[in-house]
Amino acid sequence: MKDMPLNEPTVFFGSDPLISSFINDTPHSGETVIYSIHLPEYNHLVEDLKIFLDIKEHERAVKYYKDTDKNRFIISRILLKFALARYTQSTINDIMIELLPNKKPYAPKYPKVFFNVSHSGHYTILAISNNPIGIDIEYINLNTNFHDILQYVFDDIEIQFINNAVNQTKAFYSLWTRKEAFVKALGKGIDDDFFKIPCLGGRHVLYPSLLTNSQHWRVHNFTIDVDDYIGAIAMPLNQFLHDEKLPLNTFPTTLESLMRMSQ
Questions:
Q1: Residue 1 binned pLDDT confidence (cut-offs 50, 70, 90)
Q2: For residue 200, what is the domain's CATH number?
Q3: How far is CA 58 from each of CA 62, 74, 91, 132, 235, rounded to the nearest angstrom?
Q4: Tell me, what DSSP letter sits at residue 251?
Q5: Distance, CA of 222 to CA of 232 (rounded, Å)
Q6: Number of folded domains in the chain?
Q7: What percentage of the chain carries pLDDT values higher than 90?
Q8: Would you say 135 and 118 are in contact if contact means Cβ atoms under 8 Å apart?
Q9: CB under 8 Å to 212, separation ≥6 — which residues?
Q10: Which of 104, 113, 211, 237 has CB atoms 3.0–4.6 Å from 9's, for a disulfide?
Q11: Could you tell me the residue range of the domain that residue 86 belongs to?
């Protein structure tokens, strides 16, 4: 990380995944909080959690055709609200979530609180910080035919990296989650700029079109102790985690305990 240009925005990608470390749900003293949600553990709470949906959220929930998708939305959205209530030292009824013009969710009453959510398979990951943050998790589907999209997502060197990997599927998802987490931290979607996002290990100078300042970023992959999932987290460099472990919080599985989070 030495000799970093001071006037050019850069991003550093760690070459080794962070090792996740699950901790008990305790008061948060740090500036960044990450939660892991194993969705099946909360299906029994869906009916109880529905009461915390606002009108727009309820309308969105009923549009889901599959119960699994509907339950995932309800569980993820309401647990996010509980987490934000704890982070802001408020109550869940005080947490409203709206969308910015770029479709990125935010809490209007707490504009200096940033959060990001990712779903895949049976898991949801939440990240909350006082700085922009992006997080992504993907189920490593061994049947995915990703080779057809490589040229639209990666440059020649990145494609070569994937093709030369012992486990090409894992290499693909590792690089994909890095790009996805970073564009989410920047508040962008998967558009023409997605191709421009670097993702190989090491430090890269960013395209000027991606940022309007000289902010430096860092992105790391992580695991959740489940072999068929991989994730990535992106944060400003000066806000990154201070060790090689990613502390993952978990939520209690009873409504009474959840309510105590925002008291």
A1: very low
A2: 3.90.470.20
A3: 6, 9, 20, 28, 32
A4: -
A5: 6
A6: 1
A7: 56
A8: yes
A9: none
A10: 211
A11: 10-261
